[in-house]
Write a structure and sequence with these properties.
The protein has 2 helices and 3 strands. By secondary structure, it is α+β, with helices and mostly antiparallel strands.
């Protein structure tokens, strides 16, 4: 069987491919011809369809990756911001993170919420202790002021008594001297 193909260039510069085959049973030569552009058109269309499909699939995968990435990172960003606020001393200890799901991020958010509850409870107890200490300090200060006033009054009373005792001692001495003189005068009169 003799099979041949040949390529020629037509008038408009198009390449045409011919296929020849001899059929000895009927003593015929069969010839078929097709332009190269017509032959390659389905392949080009298929290649374009595959490229477009791949591009659409790539865009969908990129979008899904972005959405999945955000669903993972957004809770972590919120957690980081909450810890940052607490570390800076400006955190709202009543604020809680949404603890959705049983994955690692949900468990981390639930742990943060328990931590914030504990910290908030400690903060309230410290605030109460500070208030109690302030009241006790004010009462102690008031008592100290009263004690100082009483001590000053007591000191003044002691000084007054001391002066009275000194005056009385001086008066006794004077009285004793006068009694001595009276005794001398009375002896002198009696004698």
């Amino acid at each position: 069987q003799a099979r041949q193909d040949s390529k020629t260039q037509g008038k408009q510069g198009q390449v045409k491919t011919y296929y020849f085959d001899y059929l000895p049973q009927v003593d015929w030569i069969i010839c078929a011809g097709i332009y190269q552009d017509e032959l390659e058109a389905p392949v080009r269309q298929l290649r374009l369809a595959v490229l477009l499909s791949a591009l659409v699939a790539l865009c969908l995968v990129a979008l899904l990756a972005l959405l999945f990435g955000r669903s993972l990172t957004l809770p972590l960003v919120r957690l980081g911001a909450a810890f940052h606020d607490i570390a800076e001393g400006e955190g709202d200890l009543t604020r809680r993170l949404p603890a959705k799901g049983r994955d690692e991020i949900g468990l981390l958010a639930a742990s943060f919420n328990r931590f914030a509850d504990t910290l908030h409870g400690l903060f309230l107890r410290v605030r109460g202790s500070v208030g109690d200490t302030r009241k006790q300090s004010e009462a102690l200060s008031s008592n100290m002021t009263e004690s100082a006033a009483a001590t000053n009054e007591l000191t003044a009373t002691i000084k007054s008594i001391e002066k009275n005792v000194e005056s009385q001692d001086a008066l006794e001495e004077k009285t004793a001297k006068q009694n001595e003189r009276v005794g001398l005068v009375a002896r002198g009169i009696v004698e």
